TrEMBL record:
Cofactor(s) needed by this chain: Fe cation
Identification of the protein by name: Fe2OG dioxygenase domain-containing protein
Protein family per UniProt: Belongs to the iron/ascorbate-dependent oxidoreductase family.
Originating organism: Arabis nemorensis
Chain ranges of the Fe2OG dioxygenase domain: 207-312
Coiled-coil stretches: none
Classification lineage: Eukaryota, Viridiplantae, Streptophyta, Embryophyta, Tracheophyta
Gene3D superfamilies on file: B-lactam Antibiotic, Isopenicillin N Synthase, Chain
Amino acid sequence: MVTKNSIEFDPYIERKAFDETKEGVKGLVGAKITQVPRIFHVSQGSLTDKNPSVSDLEIPTIDFANVHVDKASREAVVEKVRYAAEKWGFFQVINHGVPLNVLEEMKDGGLRFHEEDPEVKKSYFSRDFNKNKFVYNSNFDLYSASPSVNWRDAFSCYMAPDPPSPEDLPVTCRDAMMEFSTHVMSLGGLLFELLSEALGLRSDILKSMDCLKTVLMICNYYPPCPQPDLTLGISKHSDNSFLTVLLQDNIGGLQILHQDSWVDVSPLPGALVINIGDFLQLITNDKFVSVEHRVLANREETRISIACFFSSSALPNSTVYGPMKELVSEENPPKYRDITLTEYTQGYFAKGLDGTSHLSNFRI
C-alpha cells in the first residue's frame, strides 16, 4: 500500500533530480530559494546535537618555526605533536613553510571555480574518478545510506602520485592547485616525520609505509543557507585518510567532538589545520585518535575550505594495513584486524556521512 506521505516525498527521486541539475547547492542559492529542500534536512536528533560549543576550549596550535634549528627545538615540537595527536586528533600549525600568498591564491582559485558560469562547471561534473582527473559534484555520498544531503559542493582531484596535467584542470584554479599541492606534500613529509618520532620510532617509518604516497585534494564550497538550523555543511564524520591538511577561510563553522562537547576550530590567519585520519588511528593501535568533526551551515556568508587527504581512497591499493608491530605487545595487543584501504573505503563510501564511525567495524 502506498501512503500519502511516500508519494509526497521519495528521497531517492529528489536526490536524483537535484543531481541532474549539475548545479549543486550553488544552483539552489542562485534560484533564490527561501526554504531548504527536504533532502537536506537533518534528523531532529542531529538538531538537538547542535549544542553551543565549549567556548573556553581551543585545539592546540603548534609553531613550526624552530623545528629545523636544533635537536632540542625539534624535540619540543615533537612533544606538542604527540600531545595533540593523542589527546585531540586535531591541531593548527603556524610557520609551516607554505607562503601566505600560496594559501590566499588557493582559496581564491577555489572560490573562482565554484562561482564560475554553471555551464563551465558542468563540463567537469562527474561521479567517476576512473574517467576524470578533476571531478566536480555535490555530496560524494549523495546515493549512499546517508540520511541527509549536506549543504555543500566540491571538486576533487588526486595530486599525487600521478599528478594531473595542467590541461586537466580548470583555468580558474589550475596554477593555485599545482603550487599549493607541492607545498602540502613537502609539509606532509615533515608532519609524518614528526608523528613517527612522536611514536618513539625512526622518523621515516610512516613514510616507508606509503602514508605519504597519495594526496587527494577536495575544495569544499558552502554558500549561504536560508535555513541553517535545518541542515549541516558536513555531517559528523571522521576522515578516510592517514592525515588531513586543511586550509580554511576566515568564516568559521568547523567543529570537532572533544570529550562529548563540540569545540570550534577558530580560523587563525595563515594557519593550516591538521587532523589524524582513521588509518593512522588503526595503524597506531589507538595511540593517535581520529576525531569526529562537522561543519555548520550559516545564513550570511560563503565558506571555502581546501582539504588535502593523505590517502589512496578511490585508487586501487592492495597494501594490507594493521596495527604496527612496533606498537603492539602482550600488554597492548592489536585492537584492529588487518585491512586494505580499498576495503575500508568501499564501506565508508557506501555508508556515507551518516554520523557513525566506520573504524569501529574493524575492531577485534
